[in-house]
Design a protein that fits this description.
The protein has 744 residues and is an alpha/beta fold. The protein contains 20 helices and 30 strands. It folds into 5 domains: 114 residues, PriA, 3(prime) DNA-binding domain (GIY-YIG endonuclease, 3-Layer(aba) Sandwich), CATH 3.40.1440; 65 residues, Orthogonal Bundle (Arc Repressor Mutant, subunit A); 179 residues, Rossmann fold, CATH 3.40.50; 180 residues, P-loop containing nucleotide triphosphate hydrolases (Rossmann fold, 3-Layer(aba) Sandwich); 87 residues, Ribosomal protein S10 (Alpha-Beta Plaits, 2-Layer Sandwich), CATH 3.30.70. The structure holds adenosine-5'-diphosphate and zinc ion.
Length: 744
């Protein structure tokens, strides 16, 4: 009996077994999508394995396999195997993992489960395109009126019926008549609106390489040409021209007949960046992005799968792009936290990129100005080969000087804001005077981060989360929870003591923007954070910055990443301590990366840059190393601390989190499972907790967790398997986070 094991999109770990009917035997291959019955539901699943072994369950219980969706496997063998391994590593249900990699998703109201998609019918919106027939057939009368006008429009090129309708009310009917008389042809096409391809890319000529770039490219190209499975850490200071290295590597990879994948942090995936790739590689690149519609995603997917398009560019989820004959993966800003998915399947795309490249016998390049300790440890172990770009690419550009302002001695400047000290204001004045540009970084959006009672000292919290509410004043004044988006009017008296008056404490980007606008009425001040710039709006603000229509740009993390703005000469870090204060063993690493990255926005053009950092702990080694751009010293220092404390990269972590509405139940289930795990630990794994998470409640769900730590990956895995198989109360959700990034 021929059996197929099939993964279905349900949140269960295992695959299900079906019988392959004799007529299906020849066509049934791994990766095929197939209809199968589960209970009384019809689902679309993916064939993981075909075998004629003795079934492990009673033959009478095995149902026959339904029909195949396509004639070819939807997932190439390489990708399927990779996904299976990923699912094992993260202890994530295979069905959920496959869902990440499959194209456009069918979401019909009746069959929510059919997430593995059916036939091609639901793909995107179809639009009708009209072409004029040239030369026009001689036996037809020349049309008059609207028809003539439409024909004239079409003389300039084909047009969509939808667009014609904007100009001519009855365009649809007229087109139908014109088609009957043979004057026009119509065709249906998928409506592809790709924001990244809105503008035509002008081809550029590569600059002549710096010697460090040549050496790096040489090493990567040699690895590609000899098809040797190698991985590199490209450590290049900000603006050292790392992108140029990726471009050359990708170009060579494509010449060698293989495909390439470039992954960038979410925030860096902008039309400007994609434009740079298109300018060099042409339009034969696919952009993988969460904002793509189903139709676009499907088309992108098909063109990669068929090998018609060989290069994919995207954020985290591009890891699963079905690039044919994959030969190269580049991960830009490999240290960036956005490569970790924080819900559903909690995978780390940088780590998995190394795996996927290794499995296909390809080359992997991880690039950063501030390599993660993880990657640095891989260099030490000989897994990654280090390539360095020690100077900026443009001859005139040098790394900026960094000055520290001790906020304990420098109080509020003229605006009264503690985050705008006098030296900071002076530095801004100078930029305005010399008509250069400044970026101010403050990782806190909104007007004021706290509302505080002057009587009982309590802060106003979200009713559903254990989080302080942030005041927003732009638009309707209100308090907002940055975790669950709860909003309400700004309270005036304290809910807790009922007598105290409330004051707004601290400053976010909105307040600083307001103060600067008042202080410098003639300067053009703008803000870049999630409140003003959702999605493509951030690009518009950066474009204004590029066109020099903004003098001072204040923003959150969004201003720190990847932007190449040559006229920015001043970068101000308003509150360097905020990043250091996060209760996480990675706080110093993150703060260092943030400081060096934001400093890297200064002086990228010809004029020297200046970075001004405000802090209350000027003696902090993290800040001092960042000030000297001394990545080497920081890595050594921090590595030593991690070794002493037995934290990654010297151990592996897994976080087991319990969530539910009933605090006592969640806590007791956490204790019970932790107890079971404790018994199974042996001497190689350590368990700490269980304890309430630092954010004890989110969206009304209480959160408890325990942490497992081990230097032995296999031993840790055994304990996790035990945890994942332990049944818990239905009202409690258990989340296993392998290699967690977010400890909150
Ligand atoms: P990184 O990715 O390392 O931050 P980029 O690739 O953005 O750096 O390069 C910074 C700037 O230097 C860009 O404007 C780029 O066009 C320019 N650049 C890169 N390589 C060279 C080179 N060899 N000669 C001159 N300019 C270069
Ligand atoms: Zn909330």
């Amino acid at each position: 009996m021929l059996l197929a094991s099939v993964a279905v999109p349900v949140p269960l770990g295992q695959a299900f077994t079906y019988q392959v009917m004799p007529a299906q035997a020849a066509a049934c291959r791994r990766g095929m999508r197939v209809v199968c019955e589960l209970g009384h539901r019809q689902l679309v699943g993916v064939v993981l394995q075909v075998s004629d072994r003795e079934p492990e369950i009673a033959v009478s219980k095995i149902k026959p396999l339904g029909s195949f969706i396509e004639s070819e496997p939807a997932l190439p063998e390489e990708l399927l195997d990779f996904l299976i391994e990923l699912s094992r590593y993260y202890l994530a249900p295979i069905g959920e993992v496959l869902r990440l990699a499959l194209p456009a998703v069918e979401r019909t109201p009746t069959s929510q489960e059919n997430l593995f998609e059916g036939k091609a019918r639901m793909i995107g919106r179809m639009v009708q395109e009209v072409h004029r027939v040239d030369p026009c057939p001689s036996d037809v009368k020349t049309p008059k009126g609207q028809a003539a006008e439409i024909l004239e429009v079409l003389g300039k090129g084909p047009s969509l019926v939808r667009d014609l309708e904007k100009q001519f009310k009855s365009a649809r009917a007229v087109v139908q008549r014109l088609e009957k008389s043979g004057l026009v042809r119509t065709s249906t096409a998928t409506d592809v609106k790709n924001p990244f391809f809105a503008q035509v890319a002008v081809r550029d000529t590569p600059p002549s390489l710096t010697s460090a770039q040549s050496v790096a490219i040489g090493a990567i190209v040699t690895a590609l040409e000899t098809a040797s499975r190698q991985a590199f850490l490209l450590h290049g200071v900000t603006a050292s021209g790392k992108t140029e290295v990726y471009l050359h590597a990708v170009q060579r990879c494509v010449e060698l007949g293989r495909g390439a994948l470039i992954m960038v942090p979410e925030i860096a995936l902008t039309p400007q960046l994609v434009g740079r790739f298109r300018a060099r590689l042409g339009d034969a690149i696919a952009v993988v992005h969460s904002a793509l519609g189903d139709g676009e995603r499907h088309q992108m997917w098909k063109s990669l799968r068929s090998g018609q398009v060989r290069v994919a560019v995207g954020a985290r989820s591009a890891l699963f792009a079905p690039v044919a004959n994959l030969g190269l993966i580049c991960v830009d800003e490999e240290h960036d936290a956005s490569f970790k998915q924080e819900d559903g399947v909690r995978y780390q795309a940088r780590d998995m990129a190394l795996w996927r490249a290794h499995r296909v016998g390809g080359v992997c390049v991880l690039g950063s100005a501030t390599p993660s300790l993880t990657s640095e440890a891989l260099v030490q172990r000989g897994v990654l080969q280090k390539l360095e770009l020690p100077t900026r690419a443009r001859a005139a550009s040098t790394l900026p000087t960094v000055e520290i302002i001790d906020m304990r001695r420098n109080k509020a400047g003229p605006t009264g804001d503690r985050l705008l000290t006098l030296p900071m204001v002076r530095a801004l004045e100078q930029v305005i005077e010399t008509k250069e540009q400044a970026i101010l970084f403050l990782n806190r959006r909104g007007f004021a981060p706290y509302v505080l009672c002057d009587n009982c000292g309590e802060i106003v919290r979200c009713p559903d989360c254990s989080i302080a509410l942030t005041v927003h004043r732009r638009g309707r004044p209100r308090v907002v929870c940055h975790t669950c988006e709860y909003q309400s009017a700004i309270p005036t008296t304290c809910e807790i003591c009922k007598v105290g008056e409330l004051t707004e404490e601290g400053a976010g980007t909105e307040r600083i923007e307001t103060s600067l606008t008042k202080l410098f009425p003639d300067a053009r001040v703008a803000r870049l954070d999630r409140d003003v710039a959702a999605g493509s709006k951030s690009e518009a603000i950066l474009e204004r910055m590029r066109r020099r229509e903004i003098d001072i740009l204040i923003g959150t993390q969004m201003v720190t990443k990847g932007h190449d703005l040559p006229d920015v000469t001043l970068v101000g870090v308003l509150d360097a301590d905020a990043a250091l204060a996060i209760p996480d063993y990675r706080a110093a690493e993150r703060a260092f990366q943030l400081l060096v990255q934001v400093a890297g926005r200064a002086g990228r053009g010809g004029r020297p840059g200046r970075v001004v950092v405000q802090t209350r702990q000027p003696e902090s080694p993290t800040i001092l190393f960042a000030m000297r751009h001394d990545v080497r010293a920081f890595l050594d220092h921090e590595t030593e601390l991690r070794r002493e404390l037995g934290y990654p990269p010297y151990a592996r972590l897994a976080l087991v989190r319990f969530e539910g509405m009933d605090d006592d139940l969640v806590s007791s289930e956490a204790r019970r499972v932790a107890g079971l795990a404790q018994k199974a630990l042996g001497s190689f794994v350590r368990l700490s907790g269980p304890a309430p998470a630092p954010i004890a409640r989110i969206r009304n769900r209480w959160r408890h967790r325990f942490l497992l730590k081990s230097a032995d990956r296999q031993k840790l895995r055994e304990v996790l398997l035990l945890v994942s198989r332990t049944p818990v109360d239905r009202r409690v959700r258990v989340i296993i986070d392998v290699d967690p990034m977010n400890m909150l």
